[in-house]
Amino acid sequence: MKILVTGGAGYIGSITSAELIRAGHEVIVIDNLYQGHRAAVPPEAVFIEADLADRKTLSEIFAAYPGIDGIMHFASYTLVGESMEKPFLYLRDNLTNAANLLEAAIAAGVRRFILSSTANLFDRPERIPIAEHERIVPGSPYGESKFFIERTLHWMARIYGMRYACLRYFNACGDTPDRGEDHDPETHLIPIVLQVALGQRPHVTIFGDDYPTRDGTCVRDYIHVLDLASAHILAMEALDRLGERRYNLGNGQGFTVREVIETARKVTGHPIPAVVGPRRPGDPAVLVASSDTIRAELGWQPQYPDLETIIASAWEWHRTHPYGYDDK
Ligand code: UDP
């Protein structure tokens, strides 16, 4: 298939692009390089530096590359905390950019779409692990923007026959030898912990140790980025028979912040000092996914569910790329 990947220079988008190419698909990447890295885009992919805010350029891209079979939409503002400080980046830009993309795609006859969605739809889950039928309570403008795009896709299906899947990632992590997580500023737990091991930070701050969990720190479901990539590819290949789908993506097993730090100590051999700080606003105590639906419907099976394997893969990339792509 010929797949348009927005945000294909970013962390999950670039690794999924590389996996698409490995599976024999053709990839066209659009990225504005605001967070992404040109060096992360696989050399076999077509790369177009463009912004989804620019509707004219989007129409030109679809005209210049006819026969696009499907879209994977990764390009987005993605931080819960930032969305509480700059809500309009999310409630305006994320929404408008997705609408621009969908409008141009529909005009060009594209009818397959995979959305990067989020566990932030489930701010107050009543049942753990969290299944797709759990009540949706977005935890932030970020989660709300993804929920709105999921709803937009529903109407695109009703009105234009769009076939789509919304993939709600829990905690994406892990790297491949060639591509990895490189955000500026970095806010995610595993890369921060590895920056401590590299001597780039004196310690990691644990955001609260008074949660109702086994050691008082938050529990998250860490899922390897390659397992997310395989879910995208399986979903895209099956969309014609699926129609409309929403899948929660995780390993179904939760680890506390302290367990992540302890595992990173074991993997890196570094003491990784940790200090306890206040809670981070907006953090639910426990987020663990039930991925039974995608396992049953698509035969998806995570290949890297083990936390030590995940952190070792991230350590391999961070150790060999201590300054990330070093292009900013
Ligand atoms: N966390 C932490 N210290 C940090 C970064 C994160 O204690 O410097 C915690 C955070 O409160 C959450 C977990 O680690 O419970 C995972 O956070 P991350 O930002 O990686 O992902 P999120 O769960 O927000 O998607």
Automatic annotation (TrEMBL):
Its EC number is 5.1.3.2. One of its GO terms (molecular function) is UDP-glucose 4-epimerase activity. It catalyses: UDP-alpha-D-glucose = UDP-alpha-D-galactose. Keywords: Carbohydrate metabolism, Isomerase, NAD. Its cofactor is NAD(+). Pathway: Carbohydrate metabolism; galactose metabolism. InterPro entries: Epimerase_deHydtase (IPR001509), NAD(P)-bd_dom_sf (IPR036291), UDP_G4E (IPR005886). GO terms for biological process: galactose catabolic process via UDP-galactose, Leloir pathway. It is an enzyme of class 5 (isomerase). It comes from the Bacteria. It holds the Pfam family Epimerase. Residues 3-250 form the NAD-dependent epimerase/dehydratase domain. Homodimer. Belongs to the NAD(P)-dependent epimerase/dehydratase family. NCBIfam families: galE. This is UDP-glucose 4-epimerase.
